[in-house]
Design a protein that fits this description.
Layout lengths: L2 H9 L3 H23 L1 H11 L4 E6 L7 E2 L2 H6 L4 E9 L2 E3 L1 E11 L4 H4 L7 H9 L3 E5 H7 L6 E6 L5 E10 L1 H4 L2 E5 H7 L5 E2 L1 E6 L5 H11 L7 E5 H45 L1 H9 L4 H37 L5 H5 L4 H26 L4 H6 L2
Parallel strand pairs: 5-9, 6-8
Antiparallel strand pairs: 1-11, 1-12, 2-10, 3-5, 3-11, 4-5, 4-7, 6-9, 7-8
Helix pairs in contact: 1-13, 2-11, 2-13, 2-15, 3-11, 11-15, 13-15
């Protein structure tokens, strides 16, 4: 007896039910993989910044308040400080006014000293320093917009009512820099009429052990002034500013992902149970002519496993395609869409859970349906 032919025959007995069950698992795996990947965003950022020697000095009132650019020279005089750069947020759009890009202005000196993780070469740094409209662009943005080094682009400002004409002179490391465009702050100052302010200062220290001393010295230097400061490490800033709220949202995403998979598991189990109940008399006859209970359970388990594995595979492919297309179609998420990635282990987890749902939806109903006495089942036929 060819058990595989029996399995395939039963799967195609009610094609609509089989296809709908498979598609429900596909959609659930897609949603699960997408939601469960979101918490990796914050964890990845924190891991990348764990060994950073950079401090961030911003206004004590809020990151939204500006600081005088003259603070930079005073911070540079402190012990253990190796380099300082002022940093300003610009924000702009390119072609699509609904898709905002992370455009940031930074002092053109000390780029490689303060931001070694950007992987900027000495030649690129020299071009950035010598060209007023120079820009450094993240790798993923270069791919999305098909830009090339040497190309001139026009960006429309959203935070400030001025446009930027930038020439791409180099590419930033994709993992470290994130989805952003960096240009010279003196060019921004010129466009805005030289307000002489910055959103924050990046401070490079000689070692992590010096961080507490430098933090205290900076904040003490500007204490009781008109523009008091709050200086933090990168990790501390991320945790304080977005960590708590973002963690709550990401934990909610995990909870929703679990609910989705649990709901689909119940749906798949109920669908399989309906199919088993319809074939209860058939299974009683099969047991009467020599089929063992275990062989019948195994056959139905394989049926459920095929449905689960197929749905899981389709859902994982759909999730991979979705994350690949996300930067091109999601204007609402803006730069966040470019930072979102689907980790391979999440794909594996999603696939295994789908396979488990399929196997359980076949095994449990089959076990319950075949536990009765054969004679009793036959009399019910």
């Amino acid at each position: 007896m060819n058990y595989l032919s029996l399995v395939l025959r039963n799967l195609t007995r009610n094609k609509r039910r089989t296809i709908l069950t498979m598609l429900s698992i596909t959609v659930s795996v897609f949603i699960f993989a997408s939601l469960i990947s979101l918490p990796g965003l914050l964890n990845q950022v924190l891991r990348d910044r764990a060994n950073s020697l950079r401090l961030i000095c911003h206004s004590k009132a809020s990151l939204l308040y500006m600081l005088p650019e003259s603070y930079r020279r005073r911070i540079e005089t402190l012990p253990h400080v190796q380099a300082v750069a002022a940093y300003s947020v610009f924000l702009a759009t390119y072609q699509d006014p609904n898709q905002q890009l992370g455009v940031l202005a930074v002092d053109d000196d000390h780029i490689r000293d303060i931001f070694p993780d950007w992987d900027v070469s000495a030649e690129t740094e020299h071009e950035f320093e010598s060209m007023r409209t120079a820009a450094l662009v993240a790798t993923n943005l270069m791919k999305v917009y098909r830009w090339k080094v040497g190309q001139t682009i026009m960006l429309r400002g959203t935070m400030y009512p001025v446009d930027l004409q930038l020439t791409i002179v180099g590419v930033l490391n994709e993992d470290a820099a994130g989805p952003r465009i960096i240009f010279r702050r003196d060019y921004m100052e010129e466009l805005l009429g030289r307000p002489g302010t910055a959103n924050l200062f990046w401070v490079k220290v000689d070692s992590s052990k010096s961080s507490p001393e430098v933090i205290a010295a900076i904040d003490e230097m500007f204490a009781n002034s008109q523009y008091e400061t709050a200086t933090e490490t990168e990790v501390a800033l991320i945790k304080n500013q977005i960590g708590s709220n973002l963690s709550l949202m990401l934990n909610g995403a995990k909870f929703l992902a679990a609910i989705v998979m649990f709901t689909i598991a119940l749906v798949a189990a109920n669908t399989a149970a309906m199919g088993v109940r319809e074939r209860r008399h058939e299974m009683a006859v099969m047991r009467a002519i020599g089929f063992t209970r275990n062989s019948i359970i195994l056959r139905i388990l394989v049926e459920g496993l095929i449905v689960g594995v197929t749905g899981g595979a389709l859902g994982c492919v759909l999730a991979l395609l979705g994350f690949d297309l996300l930067p091109r179609v999601s204007g609402a998420l803006g730069p966040l869409a470019l930072a979102m990635t689907l980790e391979p282990r999440m794909v594996v987890y999603s696939f295994l859970i789908a396979a488990l749902i399929g196997a359980a939806s076949g095994f449990i109903p089959a076990t319950l349906a075949t536990r009765g006495d054969i004679s009793t089942e036959l009399r019910a036929v």
